[in-house]
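ping. complex inputs:
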Amino acid sequence: MRVVVLCSSPYSETGCAMAAHLSQSGHAVVGALTLPTLDRGTLLRKVAQWGPRESARYAWTKLAARETSQQRTIRNPYLEKFLSHEGKTLRNLQDAGAAHNFPVFVCRDQNSPAAIAQLRQWAPEAAVFTGGNILRQPLLAIAPLGVLNAHLALLPQIRGMSSPEWSLLCDVPLGVTIHLMDSGIDTGPILLQQKFELVAQRDSLPDLRNCMIATGIELIAKALAGLADGSIRPRPQSDVDRDQQYFVAHDFLKAQARARLKTGTVFSAGKHRE
Amino acid sequence: MLLLSSTVMECWVPTPDSAAPTAGVTADPISSSGQRAPLSRRQKIVSEAMALVRRPERTLPLLVTVVGERVRSSVEHKNLYSYATTYVPTERALPRVINWIMRAQKSDGGIPAYYSLLTGYSNSYPEVTGYIIPTLYDFSRFTGNPEAKYFAERATRWLLPLQLPNGAFPGGLEHDDAQPSIFNTGQILQGLVRAYRETDDADTLLAANSAGNWLAEIQQSDGSWSGPGAYQGVAHTYYSMVAWSLAMLAEVSKTGAHARAAENNLDWVVAHMQPNGWINGINLQGYPTFLHFIAYVIQGVLECGVLRGNRDAINAAARTAWKLLRKFELGKHLLGAYSDSFENGLNFSCLTGNAQMSCVWLRLGEITGDLRYLNAALKMNEMLKELLPVHGRNAGGVAGSHPIWGAYQPMRYISWGCKFFADALMLELRAKRSLEASTCAS
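pong. complex structure:
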């Protein structure tokens, strides 16, 4: 299947891993549409979010990654298997593109006319979202099969931001949902879901999130294959109350979610490190 | 006049008269029946500026505040995610806010409505003195601080002699030629009921019953309050706060008339709450619908609904509260005033309204168990904590607006803002402790 990957940065590990895994799974990645490495708007948001010191470190990490990428460690260890290619580690989208033969297009806004024109030129059957802007209708309508997203919670119960944390706080089973994107927030039809049924202890929320991201990448490949052979059909969400969603969790609630993870709820998808 | 820059003057909206609820404290009080004409906007500006001429030592603090706010509003965090992190611990902010109130309290027990950067402290204001009493008792219990309890007792002693023979309390500031005020009587009733619960004082119960009887007697057959004693003579849905007070009184007086009056008004207000969350009947003629009043309606309906076991009322309050929660989470702030079913409004922050919404969300979080309410309230409280002055006379004070020259109580630190923010901080601490306990238990 002809697929385009939408990324938040050329150095996005998730974007690289997604593109690489889709290629390895037999899909034809026809291009990657990404935002720039260090977008001014993103940096300003990070300054507001983290303060100047953390933001400077973030900027340094981004910029240094271009120069010292050979020594760079993979932040999400669960993605290592996707990023390994012929004994090397794919460091960015350019590397992935060279390895798997697809072009990379950098744009300031994924909804911009230039980005839309590029997408039309690639003529994908489906697109996969790993990060970037809020997608508008013209972009959502380009690929006939739609834009797929891996949401780190079970839908329709937990829509929106900080979804693993809210799953823990609301006693909703942890899981990953692959769905088609529409104009709402995580309201599009569901393609695949996988629960994290086992319970492990001592794992951190970032570790849980990393594991879910890796699972999401695998499920996206399965969903695309299912869409191609007709074995998977989009299933509209039972609850489409678009008002009901979750928002970025306050640090206090994240700490409570962390405590709940440690005290009882554990996850496993066969990729647990212990 | 130099200090009233064009920006300040553009935003300078005169506030309603003193017969109005807490928003209506001004230097030109009139009775609810309109016996004295309010000052025009121009007269008000001149009057307040002249006060500055008489007290030039206030010039420097005014300049420092205005310049500071200007700088802050230029560089402040624009992203809500910044409020998902605690920079000022709640345990540190709460005493600061209460200390502002206790510093403002006069030796006779009355509490001024505000500290104006132009005119200084106002006279004592019976309405806020009354409904700050529960906050002081709560703080005393919460922290074991006996001083706050003493301040609450002094406030009660100051209030009792102000009661009129018919049981009502006067509107307006102390020393005004004020008439009975329905809303202010209701607000003061909150304090009297709480003071009676804390002290078992018979005189306080007598005063509370007398006030409650007056409110029940003058209620209209449809459950509203209008006519003499009502602001601008018309019925208002934000008088749900009066219904809440009556419901509180009914708990101690065991008088059916008090409970019925509360329920009748509650039904009348809920009938004005629209399916889209908008509230009709706030009826502040000539003024924008400040968030403060919207939050009053929600808070009154919610708390009265809880006390009277009215599920419809709780649901109606939750509907509007959720509407505002979404606006806050998606838009990163709430407007200071709304119109057109929340579609438009004035772009400044009404800090009191923000603190009230935080209280509402925290209570809804307790009632429904939905942690999204707690999440929004935590972020709102973070924002309000960051705006608290740390030094100077107004350390711990809550301004009417942000920026301080906004349309609601411009250039003032207001005692009811401190009251609601202290309430919100105490509710936050209670909610956090409860959640931590349940996490540990699980």
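Residues 6-441 of chain B form a domain with the Glycosyltransferase fold (CATH 1.50.10.10).
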